[in-house]
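User: I'll paste a sequence; please echo it back and then give the predicted structure.

Assistant: Echoing your sequence first, then the prediction.
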Amino acid sequence: MKRLFIFLMIAFMLVGCAQGGGNEVNEATNQAVETEEVVEETTEEVVETEEVAKRITTFVDTAGREVVVESKPQRVVCLYGSFADLWYEAGGELVGIIESSRLHEKAVDLPKVGKMSTPNIEAILALQPDLVIIRSGYAKQEELMPIFESNNIAVYEADYNNFDETMTTFENFCGMNENEELFVEKSTPLVEGITALTSETEEFSYLLLFASSKSISAKDDNISADILNNMGGKNIASDYQIANEETKQFSFEKILEIDPDYIFVQTMGSVEDAQARLEMDVTSNPAWASLTAVKEERFIYLPKELFLYKPNMRYLEAYEYIQGILEGN
């Protein structure tokens, strides 16, 4: 439109100057061309400034670090399986992932870059990432941050152990992928559903056990405990000194004394091996059968996909699962 206006000006000046001689016509033409060039240069500068402003964005990660990324990074490597699920939910794509027995279907065939506890720096750099998502608190992953930063690779440290933290990370992931509207679309029904479930709750006591093939411990500081607490639960591991604070190894006598309404179990690794360990350390005790939770069939193994792994966008489903238990379903 600006060019059309300028050329019309030229045409009028040519007509008006035709009677005044060729020099005046040439001068008018030159001025018009110079004006057009200035307009083009100014327009290019404005467009370039707008593109830079749109492209460079800052996010605050779980560790409180300001992470500067180019909007919608194209080559992203994720070093934790659950974070990959949330990244895909935000509309992102990955070029590399850690090895894991449980991966999002879109990540199964991606190049593998080592394990969570031992990531392979050569394999990661070979993928030429512009962003690496790491698990906060994993020493072997955090040790790689200086290498990433020296190669101009953005690093986002993530970890979340409750719904609010999950949504904060999801909002950042959506922002990085320029999908802010997707955050609203997906988070709103979760917030509304969980609010409805937790608005009216009845108090109950519970014990949360964490079982693997090697040990049994009491837990009070993870996603499962947070969900149970929000549904009205009182964790006896928090309210009473039933376990050593460092090892979480519990006193069986104290559990018998408190007699919780529910006993929930999370398993790590093979469920069968964890059950065998539980049988060896706990349930084989003759007094176990006297617990109210055992007698009334409220001794419950929690499904891994909702309570061991981070539930991400299945958070409402996890809450509904607990509601079903509390209602006797």
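Residues 22-55 form the longest helix (34 residues). Confidence is low (pLDDT under 50) at residues 1-25, 42-54.
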